[in-house]
Amino acid sequence: MGKGFDPDEIARSLSTLDVHDYGDVLQCMRCGLCLPTCPTYRTDGLETQSPRGRVALIKAVIDGKMKASEEFVEHIYHCLDCRNCQTVCPAGVKAGELVLEARYRIEENRTQPLIKKFLLNYAILDQKRLSKLLAPLKLYQISGLQALVRKYDILKLVSDDLQFMEALSPKLPSRPLSEEISEEIPALGTERGRVGFFLGCAMNLIFADTSRATIENLTRAGFRVIVPKEIQCCGTPNIAEGERKIYREMAENTIRIFADRRVDYVVTDCAACGSELKTYREIFRKNPTFAGKAEEFSNKVRDVSEFLDSVWTSDIKLGPLPEIVCFHDPCHLRHGQKLTYPQRNLLNRIPQLDYRELPDEGQCCGSAGIYNITHRNRSMKILQSKIEAIEKTKAQTVISSNPGCLMQLAYGATHWNKSWNVVHISEVLNRSLRAGEKTG
Ligand code: SF4
Ligand code: SF4
Q1: How do residues 186-211 score in pLDDT, each as one tens digit?
Q2: Which atom of ligand 1 is closest in space to residue 35's alpha carbon?
Q3: Cβ of residue 32 lying under 6 Å from some atom of ligand 1
Q4: Which fold has domain 7-108?
């Protein structure tokens, strides 16, 4: 056993699971309906890699029939937390959420590596700190070194994993978006309301142009956009890695910040952030002093497609985009937020856009936070299936709305030599809105 790893304490902690919240362990009737939806079961074909298997493993530890060994822990980290299983389960078993709960109890009872503590307890608290951490990558990209390294495949000689991570890394903007925009951006035309914009870490530091397009789309739809610059991470990485103390602090901070700004809605263009922000109400449910504020906050949260679709009016002019497109549903949108229609409604409003459905029933792309790095082989198998599904649609443009998915799909397109563009839905809408302005 590794240093600071206590299987008995993990088992004891798991056995205190609240049956009201995690009655899942008992509710599973072993029907198997979840099996074909689970990406790890689809790639490995093993019961232990299925939602049903994961629930059974956790139950075996709780019942004292199995030790919370390192092998058990490994199994718990094989899950992508895509929640596809939760969408189909007739008994309401939340296998993905149960796995996150198990991770929390595991991490409470083992020593945390310094790098993890640094990232989840310190760096993540401030987007400026995160920006500084990305500075070497930015320098590497703009100095021309990246082009040289890629041309001569230099990293392959150093480490296959390093080469893979380098290939995954997207082109960084010259500055984070938060440094380039004002905190309050007025509506274009008659103002219809005040929207708070949750500018997530990845969108601010990596996909700055995308969030710029999102903000412009919101102002074109008639909303004043308020972008609090002091916003912290939504906490998704912390919760995925079993960390809760810092997560709660960041969540409380976010709720207070948006309450102070007196906004009608809180909109985000990151599916993972949206899913997490909507969960705050659950996190603080048992906290008598904060539950009301958390409920009020989560009620205001909208994914950008969900919001725009609900406020769309016929006088918002869209120009034609004659191209074939498909939409990859981020799991945090399709399963985390149960949103499938708004993004399709918006795309179907664009004149001449040929929208085609992906024939894979909303499977995960294999990105799942850092899963593509920690479980690379399986992640690539999952991605390959996604690439094959995209190919069948003959799409020229692949659209999504989550930074992790966008990076994974862009990597897949390069790796499998596909010519399609991978873009966020905000960029497609922005192109159409601008085209509409010209023709209008
Ligand atoms: S679908 Fe639900 S009840 Fe059926 S095996 Fe899967 S987790 Fe259990
Ligand atoms: S959350 Fe996803 S990976 Fe995890 S058990 Fe459910 S379907 Fe499988």
Answers
A1: 999 899 999 999 999 999 999 999 99
A2: 6
A3: yes
A4: Fumarate Reductase Iron-sulfur Protein; Chain B, domain 2 (1.10.1060)
